[in-house]
């Protein structure tokens, strides 16, 4: 044991200086070397963000001279030692995503976790899931709710929210009130108050009937209307289907289609709630509604805020496989399946609303709540297949659109950059505040004197003193600025805009100005304070463009995504 | 003397005084008529007005409170407190000598600019994009205004001499103004025919009357040569004011060098520019250095052509600035500073 620690100490002799050395690899991320071995030619780096490398989920890069380092045996040994370092240097780390390089070529991808004693597990998908998991953690911390909707915690049974305006649902009791069902019909509520049920084959232990039962419905006249022979879920008749699920919502899509949603499962890792639907259709001839059914087709929604999941084909396939497995559990005989990924679990045409609505809205813009939509089908006993022409990866479309927009903006910014490299200081100042030019005070005063009218100007000035709704500038020369309230609140360098004119005779007298060119007066309409003297910040061309376009991480020369795509 | 004699003497004295006064009045009336005739004869009486005129025995004409109605700027207010023609001579109806002085020539340059009738947008654009070097020649009035000169109150002296037989003409001018500074210029022309002399007279006339004085001047110089050129300029506020303008244009901060002053790079540019006209690089470098020094510490600068040097104007080519440069270098003009620290 003692020798093991010695070896470890020798191997990682410099781990105490972890963080002292950094490496900037091609991706532009900062890297901290946490361990190395000159003997075996291995270096282990942790990706750092804002100087901090120690996180719950680490991103490790292992650089080795020899590819054999990534053989299962060698890597196991290496990671055991790295684990010791991590236990000492970063005890809060629980997972590590590993990229292994040999001769600067990616030769290994995998992951490891403290729970498995840092034993590496090979596999790109796993790595990507964990990366996205990490992204999801960063985006929504502990909040696992979706906009406008949150699933019940721990699959607790909830009272279905009934939309009384559209949900044609009535509670019908047995004569002794011991049993009840929730019945869907469009008959008048007044009459239904007088309807009653007779229950056979169920103990009615929870009042609302659960499970197998044979329920006879009698109308207000005591005549038998119909008999519901089959299974009930929270009092709703589901025919031959015995569902053991948490019902969420009960609402009417329209008079002919009624809808119930239920929670299938919640994936805590990927932060996805899987929701499916039961539908009940009205028979126009009889006026009765069918039993609640959800298998033709089986419609399932992956409710998540993490749109990025669907940018990766591997992840999307994985989620689709999960959905298929739910189809096998809840509707083993189903041959049609509709899958949706969305930020909210309801009111999406095609998902829980009639397909007619989807057609109506087809011409309008895509629903921003929808992330992904796919139709799947299978022959009995065969695997599910995606019907490609009915598949829409809206997340990717939006991402592509966003990237196109980013590229366009990058091109605009590059054009600005190229233009500004040729522009003088005043040109940059003008760019900073989004005007055509910065004017010269003597020139504009001369012009104002010649045309005998105020002139709209943008000037760089140094405000020397502030008064009540007025200020004096001492650079480029002494002149008065009026109407400063709310616009100028401190002395110093500013770019000011407004109407420049010559003082009137009365003003000249008041301010003791005799010379034509010292009697300028600016009626202020806008002011931008400089960060540095003479707005020196415009010397930083990249910073200037970043501020103008509100892109704090923009870099010139390289188009965005190129590095990512290359890597 | 008896009392009667005394009375007779007094009466005679009064009579003589009355006669004298009457003669003075008659003479004054004659002077007025002569001056009016002179102006009317040359159709200048509608554009030159004055309050008072005097013609001395020595033929010196003095006009007081003169104002001119310039053809290009008819509404420009101006006043010459006293305009004196010291001497005027003609030979065969050709003016051969004129010497004059104008005291307190006052006008406002802003009013001159206003009277040019340039549309407001053009004024703003020209001044907003004003190039402090190139536009001095394109828009000299704006350049002077940007230097801070507006109220002009100048003293002007002028002398004109023409020898028809020798076809030689010489012009001298001296202008003193608190803002524009002191200018003294002298220039001689050879090969000026009577007709060309007439063009010069016409140019002067066309400043006041309908016509194109620039066209007249062009014709006046056709086939002429220049010799004996000298120009002395003492800066009072013009260069200093223009430097201030350039300082604001290029954001000069306290404690930093004025961007108006020529640095080594700019100096090299000037030398290169001069070298296109004359290959004498050392002389060009000296001239550039002198100009740079003058701009740095404006005092008096003097340009003096080499005696005997003569340059026919038709050999000069290119832009106005290039022609001027060529001319000065061909005249072997020396450039020297006075009252300035070197």
Characterise the protein shown here.
Chain A has helices at 2-11, 72-89, 124-140, 189-192, 313-330, 355-362, 394-421, 425-433, 441-451, 505-510, 541-549, 562-566, and strands at 22-24, 30-37, 42-48, 57-64, 95-102, 105-113, 121-122, 161-162, 169-174, 180-184, 196-200, 211-218, 224-233, 236-237, 246-252, 257-267, 272-281, 298-303, 336-342, 370-377, 385-393, 455-466, 470-475, 479-482, 492-502, 520-529. The two termini of chain A are 41 Å apart. By secondary structure, chain A is of the alpha+beta class. In chain A, strand 12 and strand 13 form a beta hairpin. Chain A has an eight-stranded mixed β-sheet with strand order 8-15-16-17-18-19-20-21. In chain A, helix 7 crosses helix 11 and helix 8 packs parallel to helix 11. Chain A is flat, with a radius of gyration of 35 Å. Chain A folds into three domains: 2-122, no CATH class; 161-383, no CATH class; 425-530, OB fold (Dihydrolipoamide Acetyltransferase, E2P), CATH 2.40.50.200. Chain B has 342 residues and is an alpha+beta fold. Chain B folds into three domains: 1-41; 51-255, no CATH class; 261-342, no CATH class. Helix content of chain B is 41%, strand content 29%. Chain B has eleven helices and twelve strands. In chain B, strands 1, 2, 3, 4, 5, 6, 7, 8, 9, 10, 11 and 12 form a twelve-stranded antiparallel β-sheet that branches. In chain B, helix 6 runs antiparallel to helix 7 and helix 9 (264-275) crosses helix 10 (281-296). The longest helix of chain B has 39 residues, at 3-41. Chains A and B meet through helix 9 of A and helix 2, helix 3, helix 5 and helix 8 of B.
């Amino acid at each position: 044991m003692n020798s093991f620690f010695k070896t470890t100490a020798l191997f990682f002799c410099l781990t105490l200086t972890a963080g002292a050395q950094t490496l900037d690899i091609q991706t532009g991320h900062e890297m901290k070397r946490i361990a190395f071995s000159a003997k075996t030619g291995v270096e282990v780096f942790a990706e750092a963000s804002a100087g901090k490398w120690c996180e719950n989920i680490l991103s490790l890069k292992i650089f080795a001279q020899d590819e054999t380092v990534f053989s299962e045996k060698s890597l196991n040994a290496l990671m055991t030692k790295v684990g010791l370092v991590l236990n000492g240097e970063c005890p809060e780390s629980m997972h590590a995503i590993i990229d292994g390089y040999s001769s600067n070529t990616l030769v290994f991808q995998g992951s490891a976790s403290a729970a498995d004693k840092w034993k590496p597990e090979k596999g790109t998908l796993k790595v990507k899931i964990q990366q996205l998991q990490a992204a999801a953690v960063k985006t929504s911390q502990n909040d696992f709710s979706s906009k406008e909707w949150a699933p019940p915690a721990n699959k607790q049974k909830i009272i279905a929210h009934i939309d009384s305006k559209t949900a044609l649902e009535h509670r019908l009791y047995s004569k002794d009130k011991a049993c009840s069902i929730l019945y869907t019909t469009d008959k008048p509520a007044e009459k239904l108050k007088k309807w009653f049920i007779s229950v056979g084959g169920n103990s009615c232990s929870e009042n609302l009937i659960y499970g197998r039962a044979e329920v006879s419905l009698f109308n207000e006249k005591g005549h038998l209307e119909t008999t519901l022979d089959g299974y009930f879920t929270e009092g709703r008749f589901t025919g031959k289907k015995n569902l053991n699920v948490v019902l969420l919502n009960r609402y009417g899509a329209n008079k002919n289609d009624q809808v119930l949603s239920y929670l299938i499962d919640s994936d805590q890792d990927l932060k996805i709630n899987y929701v499916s639907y039961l539908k009940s259709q009205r028979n126009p001839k009889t006026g009765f509604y069918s039993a609640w059914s959800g298998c033709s087709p089986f419609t399932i929604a992956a409710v998540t805020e993490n749109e990025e999941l669907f940018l990766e084909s591997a992840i999307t396939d994985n989620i689709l496989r999960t959905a298929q497995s739910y189809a096998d559990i809840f509707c083993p005989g189903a041959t049609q399946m509709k899958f949706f990924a969305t930020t909210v679990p309801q009111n999406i045409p095609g998902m829980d609303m009639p397909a007619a609505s989807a057609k109506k809205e087809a011409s309008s813009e895509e629903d921003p709540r929808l992330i992904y939509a796919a139709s799947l089908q299978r022959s009995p006993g065969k695997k599910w297949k995606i019907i490609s022409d009915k598949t829409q990866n809206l997340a990717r479309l939006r991402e592509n659109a966003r990237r196109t927009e980013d590229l366009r903006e990058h091109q605009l910014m590059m054009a600005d950059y190229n233009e500004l490299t040729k522009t003088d200081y005043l040109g940059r100042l003008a760019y900073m505040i989004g005007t055509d030019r910065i004017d010269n005070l003597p020139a504009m005063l001369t012009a104002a004197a010649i045309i005998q009218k105020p002139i709209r100007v943008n000037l760089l000035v140094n405000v020397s003193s502030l008064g009540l709704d007025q200020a004096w500038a001492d650079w480029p020369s002494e002149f008065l600025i009026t109407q400063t309230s709310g616009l100028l609140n401190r002395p110093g360098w500013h770019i000011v805009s407004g109407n420049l004119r010559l003082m009137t005779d009365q003003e000249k007298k008041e301010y003791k100005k005799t010379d034509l060119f010292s009697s300028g007066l600016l009626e202020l309409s806008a002011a931008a304070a400089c960060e540095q003297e003479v707005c020196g910040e415009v010397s930083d061309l990249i910073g200037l463009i970043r501020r103008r376009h509100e892109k704090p991480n923009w870099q010139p020369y390289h188009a965005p995504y190129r590095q990512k795509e290359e890597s | 003397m008896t009392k009667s004699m005394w009375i007779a003497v007094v009466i005679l004295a009064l009579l003589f005084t009355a006669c004298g006064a009457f003669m003075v009045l008659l003479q004054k009336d004659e002077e007025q008529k002569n001056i009016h005739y002179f102006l009317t004869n040359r159709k200048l009486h509608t554009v030159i007005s004055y309050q008072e005129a005097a013609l001395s025995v020595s033929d010196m004409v003095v006009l007081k409170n003169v104002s001119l109605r310039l053809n290009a700027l008819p509404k420009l207010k101006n006043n010459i407190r006293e305009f004196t023609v010291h001497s005027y001579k003609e030979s065969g109806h050709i003016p051969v000598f004129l010497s004059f002085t104008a005291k307190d020539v006052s006008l406002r340059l802003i009013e001159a600019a206003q009277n040019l009738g340039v549309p407001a947008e053009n004024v703003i654009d020209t001044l907003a994009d004003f190039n402090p070097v190139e536009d001095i020649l394109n828009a000299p009035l704006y350049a002077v205004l940007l230097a801070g000169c507006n109220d002009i109150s100048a003293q002007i002296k002028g002398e004109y001499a023409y020898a028809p037989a020798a076809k030689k003409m010489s012009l001298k001018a001296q202008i003193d103004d608190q803002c524009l500074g002191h200018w003294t210029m002298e220039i001689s022309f050879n090969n000026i025919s009577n007709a060309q002399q007439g063009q010069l007279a016409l140019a002067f006339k066309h400043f006041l009357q309908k016509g194109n004085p620039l066209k007249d001047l062009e014709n006046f110089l056709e086939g002429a040569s220049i010799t004996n050129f000298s120009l002395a300029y003492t800066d009072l506020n013009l260069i200093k004011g223009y430097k201030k303008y350039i300082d604001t244009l290029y954001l000069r901060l306290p404690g930093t060098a004025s961007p108006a002053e020529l640095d080594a790079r700019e100096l090299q540019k000037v030398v290169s520019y001069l070298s296109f006209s004359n290959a004498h690089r050392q002389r060009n470098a000296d001239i550039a250095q002198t100009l740079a020094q003058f701009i740095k510490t404006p005092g008096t600068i003097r340009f003096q052509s080499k005696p005997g040097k003569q340059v026919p104007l038709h050999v000069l080519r290119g832009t106005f600035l290039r022609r001027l440069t060529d001319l000065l270098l061909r005249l072997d003009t020396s450039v020297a500073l006075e009252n300035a620290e070197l």
